[in-house]
Inverse folding.
């Protein structure tokens, strides 16, 4: 898709700090991180927004979401349980959709936001 920033990142025409890649997906660091861990999970295929997705995108969406715990583990922000049974760690996953949803880049992406608090959180 011409003039799509994330398509250009997928095509390596714009630099990004990549952390993961497979046939369908690319993951890179958000340029303005809202927290110690702030990754963007994008499909290599251009989809403008979640609002355009249908059942035919279910497999791709499932792959995007299923990657979250893998990345969280790699980035050290997975949800853990201590010896007393208390949960600690964790992350936020976010898909902004459309102007009212705060979407700035019209190429579908999941934000993975985590790491020790307090975060400097913008719009999250
Ligand atoms: P959204 O508001 O959900 O569309 O989020 C777009 C995100 O893309 C924002 O958090 C931006 O900081 C991030 N962003 C914009 N340009 C770049 C870039 N060149 N590389 C990495 N992240 C970017
Ligand atoms: Zn795109």
């Amino acid at each position: 898709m011409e003039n799509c920033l994330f398509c250009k990142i997928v095509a390596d025409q714009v630099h990004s700090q990549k952390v993961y890649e497979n046939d369908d997906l690319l993951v890179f660091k958000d340029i303005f991180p809202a927290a110690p861990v702030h990754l963007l999970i994008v499909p290599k295929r251009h989809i403008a927004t979640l609002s355009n997705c249908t059942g035919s995108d279910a497999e791709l969406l499932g792959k995007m979401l299923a990657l979250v715990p893998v990345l969280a583990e790699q980035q050290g922000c997975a949800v853990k349980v201590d010896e007393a049974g208390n949960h600690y760690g964790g992350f936020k996953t976010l898909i902004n959709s459309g102007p009212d949803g705060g979407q700035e880049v019209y190429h579908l992406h999941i934000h993975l936001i985590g790491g020790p608090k307090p975060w400097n959180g913008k719009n999250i």
